[in-house]
Amino acid sequence: MAISLAITLQQIELLRSSLLEWGKIHFRSFPWRLTDNPYHILIAEILLHRTQVRQMIPVYENFLRCYPELSALANAGKEELQNSLYSLGLHWRIDLLHETAQILQHRFAGKIPRDKQSLLTLPGVSQYIAAAVRCFAWNEPEVLLDTNTVRITGRLLGWEVKDSSRRSARFRQALETLLDREHPRDFNYALLDLAHLFCLKRQPPLCGECPLKIWCNYPREGEKPDEHSQ
Ligand code: SF4
User: Fold this and answer.
1) Given the CA of residue 212, which atom of ligand 1 is nearest to it?
2) Where residue 222 falls among pLDDT bands split at 50, 70, 90?
3) How many distinct structural domains can be found in the chain?
4) Could you list the residue range(s) of the whole structural domain that residue 85 is in?
């Protein structure tokens, strides 16, 4: 559902194209971004949950070396899985990955389901992970709400950002309105990259170089102090 934002449709279209152009130049190349294999993307999103991206690269690569396909993961015994995943430091995700592989193999005929409701029945698959898999594997027009995307949205629209904003219908609707439905994968990658490279959480954002600065309501230097809670 779309909501009315304080910018025009024409401005939104310009904002999308500016973000997409910026995203092409600043694309952060991670192994799971160079594929549209839904199994690889699902594994990446599960492993990335609450984990630093840089730490995950070797873990992800080693994991896929051991289990390049869903059938390999599903056919691994639990003991084997415990041994290989424990050495990768994935202690709490062992049971979850084992159970997920069994469900996919037996209930979904060894395929990653494309529809959101089916994805949400898998253990450990949150709204965010289901949306990310659909968007990055199939280019489905999904919005991704996490601390990064709501930080940009809040700053852009001049809205206060709280911990609960990730679950806020208002933020979801705003992102639905801003989303480029013709290029959802590129739009979401660009938004995530902007949050990590320019619209920073712990340091002042680099607004001077930001592709969204002309539409952004975040107070500039010399204007009122930052009242946004992060
Ligand atoms: S102008 Fe600054 S605050 Fe606004 S989106 Fe860009 S980096 Fe973030």
Assistant:
1) 6
2) low
3) 2
4) 37-138
